[in-house]
Write a structure and sequence with these properties.
The chain has about 725 residues and is of the alpha+beta class. It is built from 26 helices and eleven strands. InterPro entries: MMPL_dom, Mycobact_MmpL, SSD.
Length: about 725
């Protein structure tokens, strides 16, 4: 692989105009396709094969207004008045009439029909039903509903609009993300001591992100792509794109400072650091693509979309960067006498003061056992809250506190009870004549279940044998008690069928979300086992060692557990919630742990390869165990630190977003990167390898012969004749 990447880097350098032109043409073509053919983003959560999804699909054919999105208009009378007073009843009736004319609206159910008036008669709800899912609701339709609600306020009513028709606002690019990129640029400038080198790191990464996102939008007519998938692809593509280019460009500038010809230097950097980039990127891609085995479409698209963004970032690093380096030529060479030049020409620090990284590694390995116990103890303590981890999908209770959907949610919660924000739909069906009688009997059975606040009369569908019963739980949609009620209804299904002749199936948004979370919870441990097993195999092949992969796997598990522990403490328990500006605390987003595992696995392997490869190289050359840890780490600590800081700032830049899906993911990835890079890779890894001594690099001879040699460190480059022969550059 190293020799192939060496040739690729040299070719891209020599044909730089062609390479840059190809990238620009591809970007222009994808933007054109996205603008002409691009469709809408689809934020539906579906779980094929589950009871809730099957019943929802059935309702989509027999009672579309029950299976589609819904909006709520919540009316509150002035203090001292009742919502049932004549002027307010007239205002509500006028709102119903206006909303019924809105595009796509299938049914409008006022409090006169539904009885949705609070016990203190201060609040009433108008239900608006669509026959389409939320992703297909036109913004113009919601605008009509909001204007109609505002018109009612002229009569003194307070109104708010919410319901399942509202949700994530899609892809966000705002000041916080720009600040994150600006901080990343600052880190690059400090790392390289050069504005040109910093810009050289950022430009290919931004171009790669643009290609990846344009590609996703171009696919929207054929594939259901969610706004969360696009935001995750943006977040990951930007973070890994800058990091991968940083690794290769750092090696290139070090070689330029030692007098290497620019063309040969970028080719060597591509063959050595580029090999590690390809390996690290491949692990991220594999881990993200593995999300497709869980069998949840939106998670599959999210994983494949993010994997595609990482793939583009890798391609940009190994092709576009060498091409841009060709345009820069010798101008990327560190200035003589600069810190960068001194570090490159005097890597062991013998001619000057030791670097901060070298001093840190020496401190860590001076008392390795104490270091291991201290770091492991801290990480285990941070991981303790993970035992209380609860998973759920966010609803409007997680929306920004100032939003109309959050106001509606809170008002319904206070005046009607939390269960009205997450009603369950029970589909009944009988094969013995009309289903109305069996539906009524089933409704009576459902009223007797624990946790049920109310059961509305059965509603017939277009199929005479079917009815739909709305069950209002006592608790909210993200409550464990609501989850238990869904299980209790399903457990009671055989008894209901025996006594009424009707089969029952629980569905609706709340039940679908519960089934999504359940499947994700069941998939968590198998997915973790796949990822950890993959890391053991890959690292054994790379480092020809048993201790290194075992240590890496344990460190990875500690990083994930500690990160999840912090997520639980902040987002579920509410620690520092006010300080961090959290709008809502409750269960953790159900797909966050799997996303965190997939992403953090790739990044952990990334830092592991760059850090440990230098140690192994020193061990091969010197055979001195502790010395190889210190000397090998010194060359990589600075670049790993810079890469982790960049990754942290990019992820943290998405945290201020008022998006219940993105905010916890951004927090988890930011703290996960910080913990894995600084606590595990830069502290725990050197200490464990120092403790292991010579045993750290031992591998049974039979296993060494059986495993393929990936040559991530590029040792074959020294033996390849094409590397030794310098070809004249052809200027295009």
């Amino acid at each position: 692989m190293a020799v192939l990447l060496h040739r690729l880097g040299r070719s891209a350098y020599r044909h730089r105009k062609l390479v840059l032109g190809i990238w620009l043409v591809v970007l222009a073509a994808l933007i054109t396709c996205a603008s002409i053919f691009g469709g809408k983003l689809d934020d539906r959560f579906t779980v094929p094969g589950t009871e809730s999804q099957r019943a929802l699909d059935t309702l989509g054919e027999t009672l579309p207004e029950a299976s589609g999105a819904g909006a709520q208009i919540v009316f509150t009378a002035p203090e001292g008045h009742h919502i049932t007073e004549a002027p307010y009843k007239a205002a509500i009736a006028g709102t119903e009439a206006a909303v019924a004319k809105a595009p796509q609206v299938k049914a409008v159910i006022g409090p006169g029909l539904s009885g949705a008036v609070s016990a203190d008669r201060s609040t009433a709800i108008v239900q608006v039903q669509y026959s389409v899912q939320r992703a297909e609701v036109h913004p113009s339709s919601l605008d009509v509903i909001e204007r109609a609600a505002e018109a009612a306020e002229k009569n003194g009513l307070r109104t708010s609009v919410g319901g399942s028709a509202y949700g994530s606002n899609g892809v966000h690019i705002g000041p916080s993300e720009i600040i994150g990129v600006a901080v990343a640029v600052l880190v690059l400038v400090v790392t390289f001591g050069s504005l040109l080198a910093a810009g050289m790191s950022l430009l290919p990464a931004l171009l790669g992100v643009a290609v990846g996102l344009a590609g996703l939008f171009a696919l929207t007519p054929a594939v259901s792509i969610s706004s969360t998938a696009v935001t995750l692809a943006l977040m990951l593509g930007l973070a890994v794109g800058i990091d991968y280019i940083l690794f290769i460009l750092t090696r290139h500038r070090q070689q330029l400072a030692r007098g290497t010809d620019p063309q040969e230097s970028i080719a060597l950097a591509n063959g050595t650091a580029g090999s590690a980039v390809v390996f690290a990127g491949s692990t991220v891609i594999i881990a993200l693509a593995a999300l497709s085995v869980i069998g949840i479409p939106f998670l599959t698209v999210m994983g494949l979309g993010a994997a595609g963004a990482v793939l583009v970032a890798v391609l940009a690093a190994i092709t576009l960067l060498p091409a841009l380096a060709g345009f820069a030529g010798n101008r990327l060479t560190p200035k003589p006498g600069s810190k960068e030049a001194r570090r490159a020409t005097d890597p062991d620090g013998s001619a000057g003061r030791a670097t901060l990284g070298a001093r840190w590694v020496r401190t860590v390995v001076a008392k390795p056992l104490l270091t291991v116990l201290a770091v492991a103890g801290i990480l285990v303590a941070l991981a303790l809250p993970t035992a209380d981890l609860r998973l759920a999908l966010p609803d409007n209770g997680s929306a920004p506190a100032t939003s109309t959907e959050r106001t509606a949610y809170d008002t319904v919660n206070d005046k009607f009870g939390p269960g009205f924000n997450g009603p369950l739909l029970v589909l009944t069906e009988t094969d013995k004549g009309p289903g109305a009688h069996a539906g009524s009997q089933a409704a009576r059975k459902l009223r007797d279940l624990k946790g049920v606040k109310a059961v509305l009369p059965p509603v017939p569908t277009r199929e005479s044998a079917q009815t739909v019963i709305q069950v209002i739980p006592e608790t909210g949609p993200d409550s464990a008690r609501t989850d238990r009620l869904v299980r209790d209804i399903r457990a009671a299904a055989p008894d209901i069928r025996e006594t009424t002749g009707a089969t029952v199936a629980v569905t609706g948004t709340t039940a679908v979300n519960i089934d999504v979370s359940a499947r994700l919870s069941d998939s968590l441990l198998p997915f973790m086992a796949i990822v950890v097993g993959l890391s053991l195999i890959l690292l054994t092949m790379v480092f020809r060692s048993l201790v290194v992969p075992l240590k890496a796997a344990v460190g990875f598990l500690l990083s994930v557990a500690a990160s999840l522990g912090l997520v639980v403490a902040v987002f579920q328990w509410g620690w520092l919630a006010d300080t961090l500006g959290l709008a809502h605390t409750g269960p953790v987003v159900s797909f966050l742990p799997i996303i965190l595992i997939g992403v953090l696995f790739g990044l952990a392997m990334d830092y592991e390869v760059f850090l440990v490869s230098g140690m192994r190289e020193e061990w091969v050359h010197t055979g001195v165990a502790r010395g190889s840890v210190i000397d090998g780490a010194r060359h990589s600590v600075r670049v790993v630190t810079a890469a982790a800081l960049i990754m942290f700032t990019v992820f943290a830049g998405f945290f201020p977003l008022d998006d219940a899906l993105i905010k916890p993911i951004a927090f988890a990835l930011a703290v996960g990167v910080a913990i894995d890079a600084f606590a595990v890779r830069l502290t725990l890894v050197p200490a464990i390898l120092a403790l292991a001594g010579r045993h750290a690099w031992w591998l049974p001879a039979w296993l060494d012969r059986a495993l393929p040699d990936l040559d991530v460190e590029g040792t074959r480059l020294q033996k390849a004749p094409q590397v030794q022969q310098k070809e004249p550059e052809r200027v295009p």
